Structures are given as structure tokens and as C-alpha cells.
């Protein structure tokens, strides 16, 4: 019986980890902007080079020969230690590192991945949906007449209560928000800060 319990616990934990990984892959935001910019730049450079080769084959030039000769002469006078060469190398290195980080790091997304035990099922909720749900839970607390929730590195609840509401009303307010958060079940855990103001 003990072996069965341990197997179930570890198996359940493994299923949860697999479900989290699949959800992260499923809802990972693609960096379409960066990919499109790099693809457009490469296509433009390649297309211009191909067009110049074809033009020269038939005796024409897209770039005036005088410009090309002047640029060639200036590039031949540069040395590896020249400030312009070093600056260009640093800029290219920075651009390469930025592109590498964009390829490796996940994109910022407005979706909240939800916990699950089944790796075949992935679920997510928009951050706006999470915020509205938590605001609705806060408005259900005794005495609360307005609520505003911000979702970032932590969840901050700013609520306003009607006149005469005791300071202890913050306790059921916090419980209501935490209970709703537990029902939703986001994968990412956050600290929850609750502030309650009273009119008058």
C-alpha cells in the first residue's frame, strides 16, 4: 500500500510538471515582429545583391560606379583598430546578442497559464480576465463598493468601502480574493497585497 501511495504521488507530480511544460509550449507567444524584421532585412539585402549582379551582367548598375569605387577605397583605408571598425563590431555583437535572446527567451504574453493535472489539456486565461474576476470577487466582500486590481509581479487589490465599514473588513476581502485566485488556479504564484479605503 505504501509503494502504491508513493507511486501515485510521484506519478501525479510528474503529470503536473508535464502539463505545465505543455501549457507553456502551447501558449508561448511568438516573436512575430522580430522575426518579420530580420526576414525583411535579409530579403532586402539578398534581393538588392541579386539585382545588382543581374544588372552588371547586362552592362548596367543599380549603384553608380563612382559611389562603389569611393566606398571601396574608403573601406580599404580602414584598419581593425580604427574607432569606426570597433564601433561597428560592437553594434553587430549587440544586435546578435539581442537576436539570440529573442530566440531563446519566451515572449511577454498577456495570458496566464492555469494549473492542470492532464498533460493532454492546456488552459490559459487572459490577464484582463484574471483582473476582472478578482475585481468581481472583491466587490462581493462585505462593505466593498469599488475595487481595482492590477496584475504584475504581484497582485494588488485597491478597494473602497462604504462609510462606517470597520477596518476588520479587510480580512473577508482578502479571503474572497485569495479564494477566487485558488479557484482560477494560475501556475505562477504571486504575492497578494490588499488595501482597503473607507469613505468619510
TrEMBL record:
Record flagged with keyword Transmembrane: yes
Name of the protein in its database record: DUF6286 domain-containing protein
Annotated keywords: Membrane, Transmembrane, Transmembrane helix
Segments crossing the lipid bilayer: 32-55, 87-105
DUF6286 domain mapped to chain residues: 95-196
Native species: Actinocorallia libanotica
InterPro entries given in the database record: DUF6286
Keyword Transmembrane helix tagged: yes
Amino acid at each position: 500500500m505504501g509503494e502504491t501511495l508513493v507511486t501515485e504521488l510521484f506519478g501525479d507530480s510528474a503529470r503536473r510538471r508535464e502539463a505545465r511544460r505543455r501549457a507553456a509550449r502551447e501558449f508561448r507567444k511568438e516573436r512575430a515582429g522580430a522575426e518579420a524584421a530580420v526576414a525583411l532585412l535579409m530579403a532586402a539585402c539578398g534581393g538588392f545583391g541579386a539585382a545588382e549582379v543581374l544588372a552588371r551582367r547586362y552592362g548596367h548598375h543599380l549603384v553608380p560606379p563612382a559611389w562603389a569605387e569611393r566606398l571601396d577605397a574608403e573601406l580599404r583605408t580602414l584598419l581593425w583598430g580604427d574607432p569606426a571598425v570597433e564601433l561597428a563590431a560592437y553594434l553587430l555583437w549587440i544586435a546578435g546578442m539581442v537576436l539570440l535572446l529573442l530566440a531563446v527567451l519566451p515572449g511577454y504574453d498577456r495570458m496566464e497559464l492555469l494549473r492542470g493535472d492532464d498533460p493532454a489539456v492546456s488552459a490559459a486565461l487572459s490577464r484582463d480576465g484574471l483582473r476582472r474576476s478578482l475585481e468581481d470577487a472583491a466587490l462581493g466582500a462585505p462593505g466593498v463598493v469599488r475595487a481595482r486590481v492590477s496584475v504584475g509581479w504581484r497582485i494588488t487589490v485597491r478597494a473602497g468601502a462604504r462609510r462606517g465599514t470597520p477596518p476588520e473588513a479587510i480580512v473577508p476581502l482578502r479571503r474572497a480574493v485569495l479564494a477566487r485566485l485558488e479557484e482560477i488556479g494560475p501556475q505562477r504564484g504571486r504575492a497578494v497585497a490588499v488595501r482597503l479605503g473607507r469613505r468619510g
